[in-house]
Design goal:
- The protein has about 120 residues and is mainly α.
- The protein folds into two domains: about 70 residues, no CATH class; about 55 residues.
- Helix content is about 55%, strand content about 5%.
- The protein is built from six helices and two strands; from the N terminus they run H-H-E-H-E-H-H-H.
- The chain has a two-stranded parallel ribbon.
- Strand 1, helix 3 and strand 2 form a beta-alpha-beta unit.
Length: about 120
């Protein structure tokens, strides 16, 4: 991991609102749908997604004057991702962000992910 990658990781530690714009600006295929939690319910993010033609599946915050109703079906993949992160948090080094070096942190996440994958694939005794 180079110095520019380390700087990008440090910048990404802010709020969801600050981190969304740089991620959406990266060169990759345009998404059709964005699944997010209430942290992404901000006017700037929703406006940017509307300009890009991306459907936002984001539950509204309670203080929104106009509450959008979102069904359970589009949120099913988001639930799987949240459950995956919850399983990663069972590993103490990942949950406490003990590794301050980004290379070590990524290695810890990869190791924990491999252990989780082996547990559920039946490859681990």
């Amino acid at each position: 991991m180079g110095a520019d990658e380390n700087a990008r990781l440090r910048r990404a530690t802010g709020s969801d609102v600050q981190g969304c714009t740089p991620v959406m600006a990266e060169p990759r295929p345009e998404p059709k749908v964005m699944l997010g939690d209430q942290g992404y319910d901000a006017g700037g993010i929703l406006g940017d997604l509307e300009v890009r033609g991306v459907t936002a599946v984001i539950p509204p915050k309670r203080n929104r004057k106009v509450q959008l109703i979102i069904g359970r079906h589009p949120c099913a993949p988001k639930n799987l991702v949240e459950r995956g992160f919850n399983k990663l948090k069972h590993f103490r080094g990942v949950a406490t962000r003990y590794d301050k070096n980004p290379d070590d942190c990524v290695a810890g996440v990869k190791f924990a992910s491999a252990r989780i994958w082996m547990r559920f694939s039946g490859s681990m005794a």
